[in-house]
Design a protein that fits this description.
- The protein is an alpha+beta fold and 71 residues long.
- Helix content is 20%, strand content 20%.
- The longest helix is centred in the middle third of the chain and has 5 residues.
Length: 71
């Protein structure tokens, strides 16, 4: 089963959209499994089990902080 994994050391929402601090990867997830609790916060994967590993979030992350791994 593939799923997304956030590299918290690389993730910096200020690089994504300095004005709003919103993570584009959270909007890209078709299953809405990435959540950013507040602007400029690091996104969290809500459920690795439900993630299909489609890669939409990884492709949308300008910091390349999200990878798809086999779980």
């Amino acid at each position: 089963n593939k799923n997304a994994e956030v590299d918290f050391a690389r993730c910096d929402p200020r690089l994504c959209d300095g004005g709003s601090g919103l993570c584009p990867a959270t909007a890209a997830c078709p299953r809405k499994l990435l959540e950013q609790e507040e602007p400029f916060g690091v996104p969290l994967l809500l459920s690795a089990r439900l993630c299909t590993g489609c890669g939409a979030c990884a492709g949308a992350c300008p910091a390349c902080a999200i990878s798809i791994r086999n779980g």
